[in-house]
Amino acid sequence: MQYGLNVDKCEEIKKSGGVKRNLFTSLNVRTTGYIFVAGLLLGRVNLLLNNSNSKGIAPFGLAFLLAIIMNNNRKNNFIAALGVGLGYFSIQDTLIDKNMYLTSVIVLTAIYMILKVSRNRKKEILGFFLILASFFVYGMIINLYDLGVNITLCLVETIVIMPIYYVIKYSIDSLEEIKINRIFSTEQMVSICILFCLLVAGIGNLSVYDYSIKSIFALTLVLCIAYIGGAAYGAMIGVAMGIILGVSTNDMMSCIGFYGVGGLIVGIFKDTGKLFSILAAIVIYVALGLYSNELTFKFGIEILSSCVLFMFIPRSLINKYESEVNLENKKNYTVDAQLESIKDEFSIKLKELTEVLSAVSKYLGDSTENENLLIKNKGSALVENLADRCCSKCENKSSCWELEFNQTFNAFQKLIQNYEEGKVEVPKDLQRKCVQNFTLVKNTEAIINNYTVDETIKNRLAEGRRILSEHVSNVMNSIDNILNDFKKNVMVDLDMERRVKKELNRMSIQYNSVFCYIDADGKNKIKLNIDECDGNVNEYCTKNIIPILNNLTRKKLCVRDDSYNINSETKECIVTIEEAPKYSIVSYGAFIPKSGEVQTGDSYTFGNTNDGYYTTILSDGMGFGPEASKESKSTVELVEKFMEAGFDEDKTINTVNSMMGMKFAEDEKYATLDFSKINLYDGEATFVKIGAAPTFIKRGNVVKAINSKNLPFGLVDEVEVEYIKGQLKAGDILVSISDGILDIDKFANENFIWLEEYLKQVNDDPKTLSEKILQKAKKLSGKEIKDDMTVIVSKIYVAE
Question: Which residue from 98, 160, 586, 791 has the highest number of Cβ atoms inside 10 Å of its Cβ?
Answer without folding.
Answer: 791
